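Bug #77: duplicate submission created two jobs. Keeping one. Sequence:
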Amino acid sequence: MRHPAAIGVIGGYGAVGSAVVRRLHRAGVHPLLVAGRDRGRAEALVAGLPKGGPDVGALTVDLTDPDSLDRFTEGCRLVVNCAGPSYRVLDAVARAALRGGADYVDAAGDDPVHHLLSADGGAGRWVTAGRAAVLSAGALPGLSSLLPRALAARATGPVALDAYVGGVAPLTPAAAGDVLLGRGPEHGTPAAAWHEGRMRERALAPRRGVRLDAFPAPVDAFPFLSTEAVRLARATDIGQVRWYTVFGGGRLAEELAMAWALDSTETADLVTAADEDVRRHGAWYGQEFQLWDGATDGPPTARLVLRAPDSYELSGFLAAAAALRMLDGAITPGVHFAADVLDPARVTEELAADGAAELEVL
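Kept job's structure:
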Protein backbone atom coordinates (compact mmCIF):
# COMPACT_ATOMS: atom_id res chain seq x y z
CA MET A 1 0.00 0.00 0.00
CA ARG A 2 1.65 3.24 -1.17
CA HIS A 3 0.69 6.81 -0.50
CA PRO A 4 1.84 10.07 -2.04
CA ALA A 5 3.68 12.38 0.33
CA ALA A 6 3.46 9.96 3.24
CA ILE A 7 5.07 10.18 6.66
CA GLY A 8 7.15 7.02 6.72
CA VAL A 9 8.42 5.43 9.95
CA ILE A 10 11.25 2.97 9.33
CA GLY A 11 11.47 0.38 12.08
CA GLY A 12 7.91 1.44 12.87
CA TYR A 13 6.97 -1.81 14.59
CA GLY A 14 9.94 -1.81 16.99
CA ALA A 15 10.02 -0.61 20.60
CA VAL A 16 10.68 3.02 19.64
CA GLY A 17 9.01 3.04 16.24
CA SER A 18 5.68 1.74 17.50
CA ALA A 19 5.65 4.50 20.13
CA VAL A 20 6.19 7.05 17.34
CA VAL A 21 3.46 5.57 15.15
CA ARG A 22 0.91 5.56 17.98
CA ARG A 23 1.57 9.23 18.78
CA LEU A 24 1.48 10.39 15.15
CA HIS A 25 -1.69 8.38 14.57
CA ARG A 26 -3.28 9.92 17.67
CA ALA A 27 -2.27 13.38 16.43
CA GLY A 28 -4.11 12.74 13.15
CA VAL A 29 -0.99 12.71 10.96
CA HIS A 30 -1.69 11.07 7.60
CA PRO A 31 -1.00 9.23 5.50
CA LEU A 32 1.30 7.11 7.67
CA LEU A 33 3.52 4.27 6.44
CA VAL A 34 4.92 1.67 8.87
CA ALA A 35 8.03 0.28 7.19
CA GLY A 36 10.67 -2.37 7.87
CA ARG A 37 12.00 -5.71 6.69
CA ASP A 38 9.18 -7.69 8.33
CA ARG A 39 5.96 -6.66 6.63
CA GLY A 40 3.95 -9.05 8.82
CA ARG A 41 4.98 -7.17 11.97
CA ALA A 42 4.21 -3.85 10.29
CA GLU A 43 0.74 -5.07 9.27
CA ALA A 44 0.10 -6.38 12.79
CA LEU A 45 0.89 -2.96 14.27
CA VAL A 46 -1.37 -1.24 11.74
CA ALA A 47 -4.20 -3.67 12.54
CA GLY A 48 -3.88 -2.88 16.23
CA LEU A 49 -4.28 0.89 15.87
CA PRO A 50 -7.63 2.47 16.82
CA LYS A 51 -10.18 2.23 14.04
CA GLY A 52 -11.51 5.28 12.28
CA GLY A 53 -8.25 7.19 12.52
CA PRO A 54 -5.97 8.52 9.79
CA ASP A 55 -4.90 6.38 6.84
CA VAL A 56 -2.06 3.97 7.73
CA GLY A 57 -0.28 1.42 5.56
CA ALA A 58 2.52 -1.14 5.82
CA LEU A 59 5.51 -1.50 3.52
CA THR A 60 8.58 -3.73 3.25
CA VAL A 61 11.86 -1.77 3.21
CA ASP A 62 15.36 -3.22 3.32
CA LEU A 63 17.90 -0.77 4.78
CA THR A 64 20.76 -2.65 3.12
CA ASP A 65 19.25 -2.19 -0.35
CA PRO A 66 19.66 1.39 -1.67
CA ASP A 67 17.00 0.81 -4.35
CA SER A 68 14.50 -0.34 -1.72
CA LEU A 69 15.26 2.73 0.38
CA ASP A 70 14.94 5.07 -2.58
CA ARG A 71 11.59 3.62 -3.63
CA PHE A 72 10.38 4.20 -0.08
CA THR A 73 11.66 7.75 0.42
CA GLU A 74 10.43 8.94 -2.99
CA GLY A 75 6.89 8.48 -1.69
CA CYS A 76 7.50 10.38 1.55
CA ARG A 77 7.57 14.02 2.61
CA LEU A 78 9.01 13.05 6.01
CA VAL A 79 11.02 9.98 7.04
CA VAL A 80 11.30 9.07 10.74
CA ASN A 81 14.09 6.55 11.33
CA CYS A 82 13.68 4.26 14.34
CA ALA A 83 15.69 1.35 12.92
CA GLY A 84 18.92 0.22 14.48
CA PRO A 85 21.54 -0.30 15.53
CA SER A 86 22.42 3.27 14.66
CA TYR A 87 26.12 2.50 14.15
CA ARG A 88 25.17 0.21 11.26
CA VAL A 89 22.43 2.35 9.77
CA LEU A 90 24.54 5.51 10.06
CA ASP A 91 23.56 8.02 7.36
CA ALA A 92 22.05 5.59 4.83
CA VAL A 93 18.41 6.45 5.54
CA ALA A 94 19.11 10.18 5.85
CA ARG A 95 20.83 10.32 2.47
CA ALA A 96 17.98 8.37 0.88
CA ALA A 97 15.53 10.86 2.39
CA LEU A 98 17.46 13.76 0.88
CA ARG A 99 17.60 12.05 -2.52
CA GLY A 100 13.84 11.53 -2.33
CA GLY A 101 13.13 15.13 -1.34
CA ALA A 102 11.98 14.29 2.19
CA ASP A 103 12.72 15.79 5.58
CA TYR A 104 14.27 13.46 8.15
CA VAL A 105 14.01 12.72 11.88
CA ASP A 106 16.28 10.17 13.59
CA ALA A 107 15.57 8.86 17.08
CA ALA A 108 19.32 8.20 17.29
CA GLY A 109 21.95 9.24 14.74
CA ASP A 110 24.05 11.18 17.21
CA ASP A 111 27.46 12.69 16.49
CA PRO A 112 28.73 10.05 14.00
CA VAL A 113 25.76 10.66 11.68
CA HIS A 114 25.95 14.43 12.17
CA HIS A 115 29.60 14.33 11.12
CA LEU A 116 28.80 12.22 8.04
CA LEU A 117 25.95 14.48 6.93
CA SER A 118 27.94 17.67 7.56
CA ALA A 119 31.29 16.61 6.08
CA ASP A 120 32.51 18.27 2.88
CA GLY A 121 29.70 20.80 2.85
CA GLY A 122 27.01 18.14 3.24
CA ALA A 123 24.89 20.29 5.55
CA GLY A 124 24.72 22.88 2.78
CA ARG A 125 23.09 20.35 0.46
CA TRP A 126 20.19 20.04 2.90
CA VAL A 127 19.82 23.82 3.03
CA THR A 128 19.98 24.13 -0.77
CA ALA A 129 17.33 21.42 -1.12
CA GLY A 130 15.13 23.14 1.48
CA ARG A 131 15.11 19.99 3.61
CA ALA A 132 15.87 19.47 7.31
CA ALA A 133 17.43 16.57 9.21
CA VAL A 134 16.94 16.31 12.98
CA LEU A 135 19.18 13.84 14.84
CA SER A 136 19.35 12.57 18.43
CA ALA A 137 15.60 12.79 18.94
CA GLY A 138 15.47 10.14 21.66
CA ALA A 139 15.67 9.73 25.40
CA LEU A 140 19.49 9.81 25.40
CA PRO A 141 20.69 11.85 23.65
CA GLY A 142 17.74 14.16 23.22
CA LEU A 143 15.55 14.55 26.29
CA SER A 144 18.73 14.33 28.36
CA SER A 145 19.73 17.72 26.94
CA LEU A 146 16.30 19.34 26.56
CA LEU A 147 15.20 18.75 30.16
CA PRO A 148 18.24 20.40 31.79
CA ARG A 149 17.98 23.27 29.29
CA ALA A 150 14.41 23.82 30.49
CA LEU A 151 15.64 23.75 34.09
CA ALA A 152 18.50 26.16 33.36
CA ALA A 153 16.12 28.58 31.62
CA ARG A 154 14.27 29.02 34.92
CA ALA A 155 17.46 30.09 36.72
CA THR A 156 18.97 33.57 36.86
CA GLY A 157 22.61 32.48 36.67
CA PRO A 158 23.15 28.71 36.39
CA VAL A 159 26.72 27.80 37.30
CA ALA A 160 26.82 24.03 37.82
CA LEU A 161 24.86 20.94 36.79
CA ASP A 162 24.97 17.30 37.87
CA ALA A 163 23.19 14.77 35.64
CA TYR A 164 22.28 11.14 36.36
CA VAL A 165 20.78 9.13 33.50
CA GLY A 166 19.99 5.40 33.28
CA GLY A 167 18.35 2.56 35.19
CA VAL A 168 17.38 -1.06 34.57
CA ALA A 169 15.73 -2.11 31.33
CA PRO A 170 15.69 -4.93 28.81
CA LEU A 171 17.82 -4.31 25.74
CA THR A 172 16.70 -4.96 22.20
CA PRO A 173 19.53 -6.29 19.98
CA ALA A 174 19.60 -2.93 18.16
CA ALA A 175 19.87 -1.01 21.44
CA ALA A 176 22.57 -3.39 22.67
CA GLY A 177 24.55 -2.70 19.51
CA ASP A 178 24.38 1.02 20.10
CA VAL A 179 25.42 0.59 23.75
CA LEU A 180 28.45 -1.43 22.66
CA LEU A 181 29.56 1.18 20.16
CA GLY A 182 28.70 4.18 22.34
CA ARG A 183 32.29 4.95 23.25
CA GLY A 184 35.24 6.76 21.75
CA PRO A 185 35.81 10.51 21.34
CA GLU A 186 32.83 10.87 18.98
CA HIS A 187 30.59 9.88 21.90
CA GLY A 188 32.34 11.20 25.01
CA THR A 189 35.09 10.74 27.59
CA PRO A 190 34.92 8.46 30.67
CA ALA A 191 35.73 10.02 34.07
CA ALA A 192 35.85 13.53 32.58
CA ALA A 193 34.02 16.67 33.75
CA TRP A 194 33.32 20.07 32.23
CA HIS A 195 34.99 22.85 34.18
CA GLU A 196 35.15 26.53 33.30
CA GLY A 197 34.78 26.13 29.57
CA ARG A 198 36.90 23.06 28.97
CA MET A 199 37.00 19.31 29.54
CA ARG A 200 39.03 18.01 32.47
CA GLU A 201 40.01 14.38 31.99
CA ARG A 202 40.17 11.90 34.91
CA ALA A 203 38.35 14.41 37.11
CA LEU A 204 35.65 12.15 38.58
CA ALA A 205 35.36 8.71 40.16
CA PRO A 206 32.40 6.30 40.08
CA ARG A 207 29.78 6.74 42.78
CA ARG A 208 28.45 3.53 44.36
CA GLY A 209 25.12 3.07 46.07
CA VAL A 210 23.85 6.58 45.35
CA ARG A 211 20.29 7.38 46.42
CA LEU A 212 18.45 9.71 44.05
CA ASP A 213 14.79 10.59 43.62
CA ALA A 214 14.76 9.48 39.98
CA PHE A 215 15.46 5.85 40.90
CA PRO A 216 13.58 3.48 43.25
CA ALA A 217 16.76 1.91 44.67
CA PRO A 218 20.42 2.82 45.22
CA VAL A 219 22.36 2.98 41.95
CA ASP A 220 25.93 2.96 40.73
CA ALA A 221 26.84 6.09 38.77
CA PHE A 222 29.78 6.16 36.37
CA PRO A 223 31.12 9.53 35.14
CA PHE A 224 30.99 9.93 31.38
CA LEU A 225 31.17 13.38 29.81
CA SER A 226 29.20 12.85 26.61
CA THR A 227 29.49 15.08 23.57
CA GLU A 228 25.85 15.97 24.23
CA ALA A 229 26.79 17.18 27.72
CA VAL A 230 29.53 19.37 26.24
CA ARG A 231 27.07 20.92 23.78
CA LEU A 232 24.65 21.49 26.66
CA ALA A 233 27.33 23.25 28.73
CA ARG A 234 28.24 25.52 25.85
CA ALA A 235 24.63 26.31 24.93
CA THR A 236 23.67 27.24 28.50
CA ASP A 237 27.05 28.71 29.53
CA ILE A 238 27.06 26.47 32.63
CA GLY A 239 30.63 26.44 33.91
CA GLN A 240 30.63 23.05 35.64
CA VAL A 241 28.94 19.87 34.39
CA ARG A 242 29.28 16.43 35.97
CA TRP A 243 27.50 13.73 33.96
CA TYR A 244 26.90 10.18 35.17
CA THR A 245 25.62 7.02 33.49
CA VAL A 246 23.49 5.08 35.97
CA PHE A 247 23.24 1.29 36.33
CA GLY A 248 20.60 -0.10 38.67
CA GLY A 249 21.85 -3.67 38.32
CA GLY A 250 25.35 -5.11 38.21
CA ARG A 251 25.21 -7.65 35.40
CA LEU A 252 24.90 -5.27 32.46
CA ALA A 253 27.72 -3.05 33.71
CA GLU A 254 29.98 -6.10 34.16
CA GLU A 255 29.16 -7.53 30.74
CA LEU A 256 29.60 -4.18 29.04
CA ALA A 257 33.03 -3.66 30.64
CA MET A 258 34.08 -7.14 29.48
CA ALA A 259 32.83 -6.56 25.94
CA TRP A 260 34.71 -3.27 25.72
CA ALA A 261 37.87 -4.90 27.07
CA LEU A 262 37.64 -7.62 24.42
CA ASP A 263 36.57 -5.15 21.71
CA SER A 264 33.56 -7.36 21.04
CA THR A 265 30.60 -6.41 18.87
CA GLU A 266 28.43 -9.39 19.86
CA THR A 267 25.18 -8.27 21.45
CA ALA A 268 23.68 -11.55 22.74
CA ASP A 269 25.53 -11.50 26.08
CA LEU A 270 24.53 -7.87 26.70
CA VAL A 271 20.87 -8.66 26.03
CA THR A 272 21.08 -11.62 28.45
CA ALA A 273 22.80 -9.54 31.14
CA ALA A 274 20.16 -6.80 30.87
CA ASP A 275 17.40 -9.41 31.18
CA GLU A 276 19.06 -10.82 34.31
CA ASP A 277 19.15 -7.34 35.87
CA VAL A 278 15.46 -6.86 35.07
CA ARG A 279 14.56 -10.20 36.69
CA ARG A 280 16.45 -9.24 39.85
CA HIS A 281 15.57 -5.56 40.15
CA GLY A 282 12.54 -4.89 37.94
CA ALA A 283 12.51 -2.45 35.01
CA TRP A 284 12.79 1.29 35.59
CA TYR A 285 14.47 4.29 34.04
CA GLY A 286 15.25 7.77 35.28
CA GLN A 287 16.93 11.08 34.64
CA GLU A 288 17.80 13.52 37.41
CA PHE A 289 19.33 16.95 36.92
CA GLN A 290 20.61 19.02 39.84
CA LEU A 291 21.29 22.70 39.15
CA TRP A 292 23.18 25.32 41.16
CA ASP A 293 22.09 28.90 40.52
CA GLY A 294 24.47 31.76 41.31
CA ALA A 295 26.92 29.78 43.48
CA THR A 296 28.09 26.21 43.94
CA ASP A 297 28.01 26.32 47.74
CA GLY A 298 25.48 24.13 49.48
CA PRO A 299 22.82 21.87 47.99
CA PRO A 300 21.48 22.33 44.46
CA THR A 301 19.10 25.23 43.93
CA ALA A 302 16.72 23.27 41.70
CA ARG A 303 16.19 19.73 40.49
CA LEU A 304 14.29 18.09 37.65
CA VAL A 305 13.39 14.44 38.19
CA LEU A 306 12.07 12.06 35.53
CA ARG A 307 10.84 8.54 36.28
CA ALA A 308 9.64 6.12 33.60
CA PRO A 309 9.08 2.39 33.08
CA ASP A 310 11.59 2.38 30.22
CA SER A 311 13.45 4.65 27.80
CA TYR A 312 11.96 3.32 24.55
CA GLU A 313 8.63 5.04 25.07
CA LEU A 314 10.48 8.28 25.90
CA SER A 315 12.46 8.05 22.67
CA GLY A 316 9.22 7.50 20.78
CA PHE A 317 7.74 10.56 22.44
CA LEU A 318 10.59 12.86 21.41
CA ALA A 319 10.93 11.49 17.86
CA ALA A 320 7.19 12.04 17.37
CA ALA A 321 7.45 15.56 18.83
CA ALA A 322 10.29 16.36 16.41
CA ALA A 323 8.23 14.96 13.51
CA LEU A 324 5.24 17.11 14.44
CA ARG A 325 7.42 20.23 14.66
CA MET A 326 8.85 19.35 11.24
CA LEU A 327 5.37 19.00 9.76
CA ASP A 328 4.44 22.35 11.32
CA GLY A 329 7.30 23.99 9.42
CA ALA A 330 9.00 25.01 12.68
CA ILE A 331 12.43 23.61 11.79
CA THR A 332 14.67 25.39 9.30
CA PRO A 333 16.54 23.52 6.54
CA GLY A 334 19.88 22.01 7.50
CA VAL A 335 21.31 19.31 9.76
CA HIS A 336 20.44 19.71 13.45
CA PHE A 337 20.50 18.02 16.82
CA ALA A 338 17.01 17.84 18.31
CA ALA A 339 18.05 19.71 21.46
CA ASP A 340 19.19 22.66 19.34
CA VAL A 341 15.92 23.15 17.45
CA LEU A 342 13.13 21.97 19.78
CA ASP A 343 11.82 24.28 22.50
CA PRO A 344 12.89 22.86 25.90
CA ALA A 345 9.96 24.34 27.85
CA ARG A 346 7.39 23.12 25.33
CA VAL A 347 8.89 19.62 25.19
CA THR A 348 8.92 19.43 28.99
CA GLU A 349 5.27 20.50 29.19
CA GLU A 350 4.22 18.03 26.49
CA LEU A 351 6.12 15.20 28.18
CA ALA A 352 4.42 15.95 31.50
CA ALA A 353 1.05 15.60 29.74
CA ASP A 354 2.02 12.58 27.63
CA GLY A 355 2.02 9.85 30.27
CA ALA A 356 5.31 8.28 29.19
CA ALA A 357 7.02 9.54 32.34
CA GLU A 358 6.49 11.20 35.69
CA LEU A 359 8.15 14.61 35.93
CA GLU A 360 8.88 16.72 38.99
CA VAL A 361 10.61 20.10 39.19
CA LEU A 362 11.79 20.69 42.74
